[in-house]
Task: structure prediction
Amino acid sequence: MKLCVFDFDSTLMNGETIDFLANACGIGEQVAAITELAMNGKLDFFESLTRRVSLLEGLHVNQVNEICHNLPYMEGAKEAISELHKRDYKVIVFSGGFRSATSHAKEILGFDADFANVLHVRDEKLTGLVGGDMMFDFSKGDMMQRVQKLLGVCEENTIAVGDGANDRSMFAHAKLKVAFCAKEILKKEANAIIETKDMRKLIEFL
Result:
C-alpha cells in the first residue's frame, strides 16, 4: 500500500475556497489578507481560520454550495490522481478549508477520501462558526500518522503535496515532500518543488 496526501486549496484547486466565499460577501480583500498571513506562517492557523469564517456570518448555504460546486480545479489534477491510482496509491485530501468543497471535488477529481472542516449552519445561513478535522497547524501531520497506521503505510511509501505553512506538519511524515507553487516557508522543508500550475508535473517525481 502507498499513500499520497494532497492539500486542496491552491493545490488541487486553483485558489482559496474561503476567498471565493468572501467575495460573495463583499469582503474578499479583507479575508484574502488574513489567508495570506496564515499561509506564510505569520498567523496561527486556528486563529486565522476562525477569524475568517466569522466574517462569513449570514451567507446563505445555497450560495455556499453553488460556489463550492463551481471552483476552478488545478490543471492536471485529475490526470495526476488517475496516474497515482494506476501506481497503487491511495489518494487522500487534507484541507484546512471546507467539506462543502472537498466532498464535491472528490466526485469530480476521483480521490479516495477527504478530511476537512465543516461550516456551521443555522436556518440555512452560516453562523460564522466552524469545526472539523483540520483546525490547527498540527492537524495534517496528526491525521497523516493516523491514516498511515490505519492503512499500514510507512513514511517511505508516502507522498505529501501542499503549498502553505499548515502543510509543514504532514511533510514531516512523508518521504516525498512536494511544494506546489508554494510559499517560501514550505519550500524550505520540501525535497521536490513544482513552480508551474500543472499538477501533471508531479508524475515526474514518482
